[in-house]
Amino acid sequence: MKNLWTPWRMEYIEKETPDGAGCIFEAGSEKEHEKESLLLYRNDLTVVFLNRFPYANGHLLIAPVRHVSDISDLRDGENRVLFNMIRKSVEILRKHKKPDGFNIGLNLGTVAGAGHPEHLHFHVVPRWEGDHNFMAVLADVRTIPEHIENTYDQLLPDFQELLHSKKGKSK
Length: 171
Ligand SMILES: [Zn+2]
What we know:
Elements: H1 7-14, E1 39-42, E2 46-50, E3 60-64, H2 76-97, E4 101-105, E5 122-127, H3 134-138, H4 146-167
Antiparallel strand pairs: 1-2, 2-3, 3-5, 4-5
Helix pairs in contact: 2-4
């Protein structure tokens, strides 16, 4: 099998996130990070989560804080901050996971495969040569596997450093 971008498969997995109250991208509200919800980063405009059912180890979900479904609803400030966060996330994953490449994208609407169409979110998925069998191993996992917690602990300091290094700045 070749290395394919398969967002439908990814969203199918994501959809299996345990039902909580409300929107998964608003879990851990008020907090800058929360291991239970795999929240790595929160500022006024952006949140970063580790996907609970990852397509690959280190699979991140990056969303605006505002509950918006359409890319047209994003404000200029959100555009800038979201794209910047995607770039920073790639840098952090490169540092810790040393992937050979990335898939970065979003699915707009249920027909496009979005598991949570009501809240826009980008996927950042590190990829390695020969990693395409990864999900076959994890597809039946229902709890947070140890490796996700390890990855969370590994990435958290860099996201928190990012958060706090920006707080003192005016823009
Ligand atoms: Zn939401």
